[in-house]
Prior knowledge:
Blueprint: E1 9-10, E2 16-22, E3 30-37, E4 42-50, E5 63-66
Antiparallel strand pairs: 1-2, 2-3, 3-4, 4-5
Amino acid sequence: MLTELVNPSISRDGLTLSATNAGRGAGDCGEKGEWAWDGERFQLLRYSRLDTCRGIVASEWPVTYRASRK
């Protein structure tokens, strides 16, 4: 799980925070998290991780956690 935000970005509306920690320069492995603002704090919305670098783009990494936005 991400313990430090790497390459963080925030959505235009300020309600979603994202961070991607690429395992290498090609960006074909690593971890990616998305957090949603609930009015008090950011809650984990989605977490993806790919440990083995195989030429797979971040949008295709396995999702290991997903929550619904309320």
